[in-house]
Amino acid sequence: MEEVLKLKRATYHLWTFTISKLISSFGAQVYAFAISFYILQLTGSASSFAMNLICNILPRTIMAPFAGYAADKYSRKMIVIVAQIATTIAIGGLLIVSFTIGLSLIAIYTTTVILSLTSLFSSVTFSSSITGLVNKERIQKAMSLNQMSISFAAIGSPAVGGLLYGAVTMPVFLIIYMVASVIAVILESTMNFNLFAKRKEVVEGEEKEPMLQSMKAGFNYLMKQPILKILIVIALFINFLFGAHQVGYSFILIEKLKINAQHFGFTEGAFAVGMLLMSIYLSLRKELKYPLLVSKWGIVALGVLMGAVALPLLISMPYVVTVSFYILLMFGYGVSIILTNTPMQVMMQKMVDDDYKGRVFSILETFAMALMPFGMVLFGFLYDVLPAESILIVSSLLLVGVVLVLARPSVVRTAHPELE
What does the record say about its membrane topology (predicted)? Predict the structure, then answer.
């Protein structure tokens, strides 16, 4: 009877987690869209806009190890709720400033830093809590629904943001975001984060491990897990080489091929639709039997598609064919991203001990956040001095080569002995 109640509770968690993530992701993306437009309208300066991006990325990179330590040492439910309340207060503060002295860049940058930190603590803690919220048979479903909510937000937020930005004032935007944040707090407060958790009990009066020692222990734990180590190295290579696509894609379509802004938007939308449909499919089907194998071929597909972005630069195509080609390519890209990420995330959820999840996921977050801006700056420079097609093809070959070496058949068989 108790087991049936736990499974019912896990089903409730599955949907409250998804709705909460959808609300907070949607709110954050609509806010980011509106605030970006507002900064550009206020200043007309690309550097002011870039400064807001730095205020988002830098605090996450610096504080990620501390978020991991907190997720492993303190109540995960409390961290998630406090982070969401802090988000609500930060938006409320910006709202008060807009009514009293008017919005300024300093107020916007300060709010961006706070939201970056609350989002970091919330996402690392939620990632560490999946195995405590749902039974292990439904981890793939939980990760797929999480990706689905992110995809919904990616598809809907620019449209909603664009409609609202033309129709309402900035304070109304902020009030909508605050209401969404309060709903997320209420949903999160009803969840039991320890339903299936296997965390070590804290003994009363036992001396807590110092923070630096605890972080070091998390790193040492990671180093002793060969498959986990390979997964993280592959993830970091993807994050770094993805910069070639992120910078190059817009540059090629807008600058080189002179694709109309609306048609460029269609290609971006196709990417989000691909992610959404594959997330729905994985959430409905039974758990993948060999996740590392699926991820491996998902990354190979990503590499091939990255190289294919350069094709219209090498072969002349009519405008309609070029746009259709990129719509199909980006749809495939969205599908491949989910086929890569979801199985990898499911494996990591199952392989990492509950007591180390926060620190392991925060190590991944730290390196990923540091590598992404570095990759984008490096590739931004390379696109100015080298032919775009060469950069994409070399990056594509590197990505495929790295995954074929790191996830070679012997490694896949170690992760999935049943393949023997």
Answer: Multi-pass membrane protein
At 134-176, the pLDDT tens digits run 887 888 888 888 878 777 777 777 667 767 666 667 788 788 8
User: In this structure, what token pair is assigned to residue 162?
Assistant: 């664009």
Other C-beta atoms within 10 Å of 8: how many? 10
Q: Say which residue the tokens 């734990």 belong to.
A: 221
Cα angle 82, 146, 417 (rounded to 5 degrees) comes to: 115
Render the burial of 19-35: b for 16+ CB within 10 Å, e for the rest: ebbbbbbbbbbbbbbbb
Residues 6+ apart with CB under 8 A from 318: none
In order of their start, the domains of the chain are 2-196 (1.20.1250.20), 214-414 (1.20.1250.20)
Structure tokens at 276: 């959404």
Backbone angles phi, psi at 194, to 5 degrees: -110, 20
Calculate the CA 113 to chain-centre distance.
Answer: 18
388 close to 313: Cβ distance less than 8 angstroms = yes
DSSP state of 255: I
- The helix (H) or strand (E) run that includes residue 305 is helix 291-308
| Contact status, residue 330 vs residue 375, Cβ threshold 8 Å | no
Short-list 151, 154, 130, 150, CA closest to 142: 130
249 and 309 Cβ atoms separated by less than 8 Å? yes
Query: Tokens at residue 279, please?
Result: 């997330």
Whether the CB-CB separation of 177 and 112 falls below 8 Å is answered with: no
